[in-house]
Design a protein that fits this description.
The protein is built from 12 helices and 12 strands. The protein is α/β, with parallel strands linked by helices and about 350 residues long. The strands form 3 sheets. It has a 7-stranded parallel β-sheet with strand order 3-2-1-4-5-7-10, with helices on both faces. A 3-stranded mixed β-sheet has the order 8-9-11. Helix 5 crosses helix 7 and helix 10 crosses helix 12. The two termini are about 40 Å apart. It comes from Lasiosphaeria ovina.
């Protein structure tokens, strides 16, 4: 069933007003732009080059309500001041996704980019009503499959900060991709805390909310993201090394971002956009339902599952309130749509099981 946007009396900004979406070429951001456009808003996206802006415009169908502004460096002085002018709301989704092993390449520019958005919002004047930041569940906790713990508004991933500060260089190299993920998480912790410190200190005239998504799956536009690459790997017989954590459909995530920007009752919230935990056994089971004849790797029957609890109710409530959804989309349907996206990019080709003799 298709669920369409249905405005309520709690609209913070009128339809037809402009929402700024930074880093609009990214997997989540392009869906935020798409959902905002479908909901009747204008969108101005920031990109690092005009070529990328043209690509995003084409991906969105070149609507008249979309425009882009080139911001080559989000950490540059007054990076977003021009792009912010005339916007009624802003969603800061721009991030550094090259997973650098050097904290100095990740943490300071991520923090500076977030503060630049807030500075630009202050300079924009009274018409700017809200700012939303994309953080991560990694800003609250790292994956710990099989361990019971709770993630809520006041949960912070100080363990990632300590690890990044204290790990010697030889150990960093040995940790490989896990080290880079901890640097990414540390950057998200520092940036989000900087946002909340700014709000507490400056008491800005606009509302601020933060969305902390789980791992995004789904039928993505443009970049297929980490999850799409992992599903492609499964179609090729490779089980990813990523541990169990919470997932969310990318459209659900985008809609939660839009709702955080436009809902006048949502203020100062840390919104965990988390559907349910997954592991690769569950993903492979869902893929078998979507492609019964697919030759997929045999999952580890003893693979641990994330058994933490997360304060994710507000995200589900916003999906019900503004789109009439029963809640989050669910792992099975989201994986089905991820598989459909992957097959579309492979002309429908995948390895099939040999029939039994």
């Amino acid at each position: 069933m298709t669920h369409s946007f249905a405005p309520t009396k709690d609209l913070r900004i009128p339809r037809g007003s402009t929402i700024l979406v930074t880093g609009v070429s990214g997997m989540i951001a392009v869906h935020i732009a798409d959902e905002a456009l479908k909901a009747g808003f204008r969108v101005r996206g920031t990109v690092r080059s005009a070529a990328r802006g043209d690509e995003v415009a084409a991906l969105l169908g070149s609507p008249a309500a979309f425009e882009y502004a080139v911001v080559p460096d989000m950490a540059g002085d007054a990076a977003f001041h021009v792009a912010m002018r005339g916007a009624a709301a802003a969603v800061h989704c721009a991030s550094i996704h090259d997973f650098s092993a050097r904290p100095v390449d990740m943490v300071p520019p991520t923090v500076r980019g977030s503060l630049n958005v807030l500075d630009a919002a202050l300079a924009a004047g009274p018409d700017l009503r809200s700012v939303v930041f994309t953080s991560s569940t990694g800003a609250a906790a790292s994956p710990r499959p099989g361990v019971q713990f709770h993630v809520g508004r006041d949960t912070w991933n100080d363990a990632a900060l300590d690890l990044v500060r204290d790990t010697p260089p030889d150990r960093q190299a040995a940790m490989g991709f896990d080290w880079k993920m901890n640097v990414y998480r540390a950057a998200k912790v520092e940036a989000e805390r900087a946002v909340w410190h700014f709000v507490e200190r400056q008491k800005p005239p606009f509302d601020v909310n933060v969305v902390n998504p789980g791992m995004n799956f789904g039928g993505a536009k443009g970049s297929m993201g980490v999850s799409g690459a992992q599903v492609l790997g499964l179609l090729d017989g490779k089980i990813p090394p990523i541990p169990s954590l919470y997932m969310v459909d990318v459209v659900d995530d985008a809609r939660i971002h839009v709702a955080a920007a436009i809902d006048a009752t949502v203020k100062g919230q840390r919104i965990f956009a988390c559907d349910s935990p997954f592991n690769w056994r569950l993903v492979i089971e869902a893929m078998h339902k979507a492609l019964p004849d697919a030759q997929l790797p045999q999952p580890d029957p003893h693979e641990l599952l994330d058994i933490s609890t997360v304060d994710n109710a507000l995200g589900a409530e916003l999906l019900r309130k503004w789109w009439g959804q029963p809640g989050y989309k669910g792992l099975e349907q989201t994986v089905r749509e991820t598989v459909g996206m992957c097959l579309a990019r492979r002309n429908g080709e995948y390895k099939r099981r040999q029939p039994a003799q």
